C-alpha cells in the first residue's frame, strides 16, 4: 500500500511501475516512472546519472539484476512512509509533463505472428489457395523495419505519398488512399549479445527489458505495389508509433499464459513447452474515441520468446534498444481484428461507426488510440498507457504529382 | 603533385582521399585519410575533435561545405612542401594500422537495382514467367536490413544456422548449405532530413557523403524458405560487410555517367534526365585470390540518387549514418555476375576454378574479396580499397540440430 493516494482503478499501481522519458519544462529529458496520476522523476529521486541520459538505453543495458534492484527500491520508496518527504517533491502530475521517445531504437523488427491476421490477409489476397504460406507454422515470419522513423505516441501521422497502381492504369504518385493501422505489442531489448550468439527460449527475460504498444501505420496501396519480392518498404517506413511507457517484463509474471496449440511440431529452438511466453494482454483500438476492436494478445501463435530465439538463431547480434514488434494482433472474432483492412475486409465491408458515418481506411483528421491492460500480481489490471496518432493531410510530393 | 612519394599506380592519390577510422596501437579510434600507402591521422594533424570521435558520423553531419573545405585543406597540406614537417609525423604506414567500422550505421537499406541480377534470379526462380516483376521498371525495389550486423571488412563470416527446407522433407535446423556473396556498392548519408521531407534527385550530393563497397552475405537456403511474403530476414541478417574507406562523392565527378536507357517513362520524382547519377565503377570479385567476376556498376538501372529519392518520397526521414546499398551488381555477361547463385546458375553450373576444383556456393575457409576502381579527375583510377571476409564453420545451434 502506497502512502501516495492512487486513483481508483489506476493501471499504474505498484505492480506496474513502467519507465518512460519525460520533460516537465525545458528540454531536460530524464527517466520517469508512472505511479497513479503522477510521474516520479528518477534522476532527481535517485541522483543516478543513468536516469538523466534522455533515454532508457543506459539503464536497460545494466541487465536484469539492476532492473529488479531498482524495482524493489521504488516499491520501498513508495510504500515506506519515512521516504515520503524525500520522494514527494519529485512527483509531477502526469498531465503536466511531456513524454518522449523512451528508447534510442537500434534495429526495428516487425513480426507477423497472429495466425488470424495472417489467415485474414491470405484469404483476401490469395483467394482459392491455403490462407497461410507453407512456412508460417514453422517459423515466426518477420522483417526489418525503419528504426529511424519509430516515434513516440502523439507524433502526427502525415499521410504518405508514394506509388500506387490500379490494375488498369499506370502507376501514379500521390497520397495513400488506403492508410491503415496495425495494433501491435513491442518488446525492447536491454542486454545485447555478441555476433554469433543465439538467445534460447529460456533466456528471454535475461535480454528483454520491457513491453510497449506499437502502431505500425501502413499504406496498403503503396505496400501492395512494392512488396513483391522483397517485402514491405515505403508502405511502412513513413512512421511507426510506440507508447511512451515501457512496462517491465518483471511486472508481467501474472500475465504469462500458454500459447495456442501448435499445428506442427516445432524444431527444438522454437519448442517452448518449457518456456511459454504467451501474454494475456487485452488490447483496445479506438477510432475517434469509439471502440472498434478488442484484440486479444493471448491468441498470438508465436510468442516474443520464440521471436527472439528465431531472430538470433543465425547468430545475428542484439543491441540495447532493439525493438521487435509482434505484428498485427487479431483474434478470431471480427471485432478482435487489429487492422482496418481486416475490419473492413479490404474495404468491401465498411465499418459503421456509432458516432455516424462509415470507415474503410483512415481519413484525414482521424485519430486512432490503442490501449492495453494485463493481469497484475496483486489482482489488479496494469495499464500499458496508450499509443495514439492523428492523420494529417499529405504534403506535395517532390517533382509534383506527375499524372496522379 | 604531392611532396609525399606515392606508389606508382596507387588508387589513393590526391584525387581520392577517402576517409576511414583507424587505430595504430591502443584502441583510440580516430579518423584517417588514405594517401598512397599511408594513413594520415586527421585528429592529430587538424587538432579537430570531430576526428577523434571514433566514427565519421559527426564529420559527415557537418554537410557538403565542410566536406569540401577539409578536402581542399588536405590537398594543400599534401602538396605544399611547407606543410611537410607538420604533416609527416602523422602519416602511418597503412600496413601497420587497424581499420574499423567507419560509420555508426543508423538504418541499412538494400536495393535490388541491377536489371541483369533481377532477371537472372527471376529466370531461375520463376521459369516460364516474365523475369522481372511488374513493379521493377517503375521503382527501385528495396528493403530494410539489419544495421546492427553491418561490420567492417575482415570480420569473420561464421556460416549461419537456420531453417532449411527441401521440397520433400520437413524443415530442419542447421548450417546454411548455400552461402553466397552479393557484390554491392554502398552509399552513406551525412546530412539528415526531418520526418516528412523528401530528397529530390538534384539534392543527392547535399545529403550523401560517400561511397563504399558492401558484401551482403546471403544464405540462399534460409532465404528461400523464409522470404514469402515479407522478404529476406535471417538469410541476410547474420552479417553485412563494408569496406573501411569511404570515398567522398566529390571525388567521383569524373565517374558520373548516364544510366542505361529506361524501359518505361519514369514518374517525375524518379526522372533523372537532368540529374544522372550513374557511376562508372569497375568491381572485381576474387575467390581465394582468383578473379571470378568483374561486375560493371555503370550497368545499374537505378542510380543511387533515384534510390534516395524513392526512399524518402513517403516522408521517411534520414539520419546521419544511414547506409543504403545498390543490391548485387551484375552485368550482362556471365563473368560480370555479382553473386555465386548467378555465377553457378543456382548450383547447376559449378564454377571451375583455375586454382583447381569447382565451386557452387561458399565452403568453409573460402575468402572472398571485392575491390573497385573508378576514373578520377586527374586521369588516374581511384581505388575503393576492398571488402573481404573468410568463411568460418557454423557453431552449434541453440537446442541442438533437432533432426537436421
Automatic annotation (TrEMBL), chains A, B:
Enzyme Commission number(s): 3.7.1.2
Binding locations of substrate: 112, 126, 223, 227, 328
Biological or metabolic pathway of the protein: Amino-acid degradation; L-phenylalanine degradation; acetoacetate and fumarate from L-phenylalanine: step 6/6
A Pfam family assignment: FAA_hydrolase_N
Residue ranges occupied by any Fumarylacetoacetase N-terminal domain in the UniProt entry: 15-102
Keyword Calcium belongs to the record: yes
UniProt keyword annotations, A-Z: Calcium, Hydrolase, Magnesium, Metal-binding, Phenylalanine catabolism, Tyrosine catabolism
Active-site positions on this chain: 117
Domain Fumarylacetoacetase-like C-terminal per the UniProt entry, residue ranges: 109-373
GO molecular function: fumarylacetoacetase activity; metal ion binding
Signal peptide from the UniProt entry: none
GO BP: homogentisate catabolic process; L-phenylalanine catabolic process; L-tyrosine catabolic process
Top-level taxon in the UniProt lineage: Bacteria
Residues the entry annotates as binding Ca(2+): 110, 182, 184, 216
Residues annotated to bind Mg(2+): 216, 236, 240
Required cofactor names: Ca(2+); Mg(2+)
Keyword Hydrolase included in the entry's annotation: yes
UniProt protein name: fumarylacetoacetase
Source taxonomy: Bacteria, Bacillati, Actinomycetota, Actinomycetes, Micromonosporales
Amino acid at each position: 500500500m502506497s502512502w501516495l493516494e492512487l486513483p481508483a482503478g489506476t493501471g499504474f499501481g505498484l505492480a506496474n511501475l513502467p519507465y518512460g522519458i519525460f520533460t516537465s519544462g525545458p528540454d531536460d529529458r530524464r527517466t520517469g516512472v508512472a505511479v497513479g496520476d503522477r510521474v516520479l522523476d528518477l534522476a532527481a529521486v535517485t541522483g543516478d546519472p543513468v536516469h538523466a541520459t534522455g533515454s532508457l538505453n543506459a539503464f536497460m543495458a545494466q541487465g536484469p539484476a539492476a532492473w529488479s534492484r531498482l524495482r524493489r527500491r521504488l516499491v520501498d520508496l513508495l510504500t515506506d512512509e519515512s521516504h515520503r518527504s524525500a520522494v514527494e517533491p519529485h512527483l509531477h502530475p502526469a498531465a503536466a509533463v511531456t513524454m518522449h521517445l523512451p528508447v534510442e531504437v537500434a534495429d526495428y523488427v516487425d513480426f507477423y505472428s497472429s495466425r488470424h491476421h495472417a489467415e485474414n490477409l491470405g484469404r483476401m489476397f490469395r483467394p482459392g489457395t491455403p490462407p497461410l504460406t507453407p512456412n508460417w507454422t514453422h517459423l515466426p515470419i518477420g522483417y526489418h523495419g525503419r528504426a529511424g522513423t519509430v516515434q513516440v505516441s502523439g507524433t502526427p501521422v502525415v499521410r504518405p505519398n508514394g506509388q500506387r497502381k490500379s490494375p488498369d492504369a499506370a502507376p501514379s504518385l500521390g497520397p495513400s488512399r488506403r492508410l491503415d493501422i496495425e495494433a501491435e505489442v513491442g518488446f525492447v531489448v536491454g542486454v545485447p549479445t555478441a555476433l554469433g550468439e543465439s538467445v534460447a527460449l529460456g533466456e528471454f527475460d535475461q535480454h528483454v527489458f520491457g513491453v510497449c504498444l506499437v502502431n505500425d501505420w501502413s499504406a496498403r496501396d503503396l505496400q501492395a505495389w512494392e512488396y513483391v519480392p522483397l517485402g514491405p518498404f515505403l508502405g511502412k517506413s513513413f512512421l511507426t508509433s510506440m507508447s511512451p511507457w515501457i512496462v517491465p517484463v518483471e511486472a508481467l509474471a501474472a500475465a504469462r499464459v500458454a500459447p495456442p496449440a501448435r499445428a506442427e511440431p516445432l524444431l527444438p529452438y522454437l519448442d517452448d513447452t518449457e518456456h511459454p511466453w504467451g501474454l494475456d494482454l487485452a488490447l483496445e483500438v479506438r477510432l475517434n474515441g469509439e471502440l472498434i476492436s478488442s484484440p486479444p494478445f493471448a491468441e498470438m501463435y508465436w510468442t516474443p520468446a520464440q521471436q527472439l530465439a528465431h531472430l538470433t538463431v543465425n547468430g545475428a547480434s542484439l543491441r540495447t534498444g532493439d525493438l521487435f514488434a509482434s505484428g498485427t494482433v487479431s483474434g478470431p472474432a471480427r471485432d478482435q481484428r487489429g487492422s482496418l483492412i481486416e475490419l473492413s475486409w479490404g474495404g468491401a465491408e465498411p465499418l459503421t461507426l456509432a458516432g455516424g458515418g462509415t470507415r474503410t481506411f483512415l481519413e484525414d483528421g482521424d485519430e486512432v488510440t490503442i490501449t492495453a491492460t494485463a493481469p497484475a500480481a496483486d489482482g489488479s489490471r496494469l495499464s500499458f498507457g496508450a499509443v495514439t496518432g492523428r492523420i494529417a493531410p499529405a504534403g506535395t510530393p517532390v517533382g509534383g504529382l506527375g499524372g496522379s
